[in-house]
């Protein structure tokens, strides 16, 4: 149960913690009643009523019709007000960026995507700012005032993998000097928060999992390279510098019997290199729009090798971090993602396991734009909601 008062916290801090607890219950249990909020949170009825009144005045929640005919006093249901707040998510990826406008209820309002050969720090921030302004132009002045800011996500500061994309000399060094959140903030005039793309993807994944959500989840996302992260009991495994759980950098045995990295075996970049070596077409733009049938001769062996590498990475992650399930998602057509999942399971089943239990593997539910959604959601979560994960895990309202 949520503990409303913690020793050493100021009254303002207590009030804010209580408010976040109430909002979290309303987000996790849409339609929850005022009486149920008081019961589940441990707050008194009068305190709950004051908080709900304040949240309603600020347009963060909507009061429903009074429910009569039930045992006890008539109950008033509450839901998040989709128009109460919004945020922008920005994903700066290896070969694309996405800009998302999302409301506090987690619903997308608008999204844009641009593709490129590599992220050029000289031009990308201006392009992002232009797309941000385009999305904001559709908001009324009142809704624009309710914008919480920008959650921006990227694979750290990119680093040596840029060389794999043929980026010019000096590109990695240029990225190494950039504070990405500060640069986005300067270009857009909005507050910005940075989070690693794997962590953003993992956060989106855990929020779309059905209740009761797994306590521990390892997330693998197959894009240009392989990103991912770990969520344990509602906490992101981010590390002191924000780049923990870099699953793509896990070392794997690449057949025949040589070491490599998951990035270089299980990624779309690895597939593109196979296709190029076979004299196939240059793979550009959104992978879901590629002509996959035309490159099937290279897709089939890539799926086998990628599944073999992912199975090893799943076992390594499970050995280090206690998880219930590993999810595999990607910027892929559903049919290809399904085949990749089958390949991973097959190789996992064929591998001797010394763990207490063989890890479960399932298809991710977060979709191909998981990172940008996760970044936008994390900004709102950290602004408005409680860190007490059990509040989101409550049973549905009755």
How many domains? The number is 3
* Percent strand: 15-25%
How many DSSP E strands? 15
Oligomeric assembly: single chain
CATH architecture of the largest domain: 2-Layer Sandwich
Return residue spans where pLDDT drops below 50 for at least 5 consecutive residues: 1-9
CATH superfamily of the largest domain: ATPase, nucleotide binding domain
Helical residues, percent: 25-40%
| H/I helix tally | 13
Q: How do the helices and strands follow one another from N- to C-terminus?
A: HEHHEEEEEHHEHHEHEEEEEHHHEHEH
* Order of adjacent strands in the largest pleated sheet: 6-5-4-7-8
Concise account of the structure shown:
Residues 19-71 form the HTH marR-type domain. By secondary structure, the protein is of the alpha/beta class.
């Amino acid at each position: 149960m949520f503990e409303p008062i913690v020793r050493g916290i100021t009254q303002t801090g207590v009030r804010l913690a209580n408010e976040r607890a109430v909002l979290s219950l309303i987000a996790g249990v849409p339609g929850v009643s005022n009486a149920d909020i008081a019961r589940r949170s441990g707050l008194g009825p009068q305190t709950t009523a004051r908080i709900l009144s304040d949240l309603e005045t600020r347009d963060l929640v909507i009061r429903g019709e009074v429910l009569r005919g039930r045992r006890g006093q008539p109950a008033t249901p509450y839901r998040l007000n989709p128009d109460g707040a919004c945020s922008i998510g920005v994903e700066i990826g290896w070969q694309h960026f996405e800009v998302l406008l999302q409301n506090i209820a987690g619903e997308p309002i608008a999204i844009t995507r641009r593709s490129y050969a590599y992220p050029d720090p000289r031009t990308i921030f201006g392009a992002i700012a232009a797309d941000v302004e385009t999305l904001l132009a559709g908001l009324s002045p009142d809704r624009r005032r309710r914008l919480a800011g920008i959650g921006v996500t990227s694979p750290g500061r990119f680093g040596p993998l840029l060389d794999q994309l043929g980026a010019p000399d000096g590109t990695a060094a240029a990225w190494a000097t950039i504070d990405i959140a500060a640069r986005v903030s300067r270009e857009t005039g909005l507050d910005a928060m940075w989070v690693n793309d794997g962590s953003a993807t993992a956060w989106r994944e855990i929020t779309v999992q059905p209740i009761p959500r797994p306590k521990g989840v390892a997330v693998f996302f197959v894009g240009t390279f392989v990103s991912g992260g770990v969520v344990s009991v509602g906490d992101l495994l981010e590390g002191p510098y924000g780049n923990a759980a870099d699953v793509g950098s896990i070392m794997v045995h690449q057949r025949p019997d040589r070491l490599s990295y998951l990035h270089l075996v299980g990624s779309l970049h690895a597939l593109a290199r196979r296709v190029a070596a076979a004299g196939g077409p240059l793979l550009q733009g959104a992978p879901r729009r590629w002509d996959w049938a035309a490159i099937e001769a290279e897709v089939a062996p890539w799926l086998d090798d990628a599944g073999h590498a992912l199975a090893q990475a799943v076992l390594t992650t499970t050995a280090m971090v206690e998880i219930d399930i590993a999810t595999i998602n990607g910027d892929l057509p559903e049919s290809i993602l399904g085949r990749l999942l089958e390949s991973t399971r097959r190789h996992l089943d064929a591998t001797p396991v010394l763990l207490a239990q063989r890890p479960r593997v399932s298809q991710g539910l977060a979709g191909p734009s998981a990172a940008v959604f996760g970044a936008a959601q994390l900004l709102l979560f950290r602004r408005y909601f409680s860190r007490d994960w059990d509040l989101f895990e409550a049973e549905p309202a009755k």
